[in-house]
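Comment thread on ticket #2218

A.B. wrote:
> Attaching the input chain for the structure job we discussed in standup.
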Amino acid sequence: MRDIDKLINQYKEILNEIKQLPEAKVTEKNFRMAGIISDLITRFSTDSKKTVIVGGLSVNYYTEGEYATQDIDIIARINQKIEDILKELGFVKTSGRHFSNDDLKIYIEFPSEPLEADPSRLVHIETQDGFQVSMIGLDDILIDRIRARVNWKEGIQTKWIRQLWIKHKVRFDVKYIEEKLKNEELEFFKQLQNAYEDIHQTAIGRNEKFKMELEILYEDQQENRVFYNISSLDNNLILILAPESYCEDVGEFGGYFAMSFYPVLNIFMCDEFVEEFVEIANNPVIGVTLEEAIDFIKVIQQKDLKENIKATNNYDVLIRLLKNI
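C.D. wrote:
> Ran it. Output below, let me know if you need it in another format.
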């Protein structure tokens, strides 16, 4: 038997084991497959040193499996020989650099762009099958997610940026990250630091954490959500929400309300374009207490319940969020 046939049979044996894994073992499945790809490229590509796992699988690794993905993104230069072996392993070329195996539920992409990361920060790990894989470094995957959040408006990234920061805060090279980010990207990173650095002592920190956690809630509740929009205003970082059933009771200001922790906890009634808004607090300098804010939200929740409007449980989540900030 030729050496190449032996190698392909070895790969097939691993894939047969992967096929038997339960769905909960998706991380193991993906990394074992990534190991096969890395080994393939090392053997048959002329540019094997640039083989690096990026994208969702690296987020999966750094969040310890919290981020789920069936995609394997690997920056590498492939050739016809590698494509032929992937085909023999059951993969179908669906587009220029995309391959899929529906039976295994594995989807591979070889991004065409060069690696936008520091090679010296790559992480090298060995799979259980003895293959070596390289992965984008922690600092660079955070930078990548922040850019996706800011430049491509991918709100879902906020959740995973938060998870990466919370889990590995002491490991990040802040100076390196700040040098790589620009303008709004850097501003978002500063907000992240404020939100999860010293939240119990600064109003700004509490406001930034509330803003980010609410954005995550907004993205997680795609169906039947009560939150119409979330945005910032000037330096007050006011968070805009729209209750479904409050419109008839607020007169000229319309059915919208905003919340802010900075400089104090406060709630505002406003119109759709937030050209006008008014505080509900008797003294705007003092703001409202946590109990007053919760009571205000509960009034809206009861109105929605009375109107049989769905997703009123989002208000419960919002109240829990307030209590935790």
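A.B. wrote:
> Thanks. Noting for the ticket: The chain has three domains: 3-136, 140-197, 222-324.
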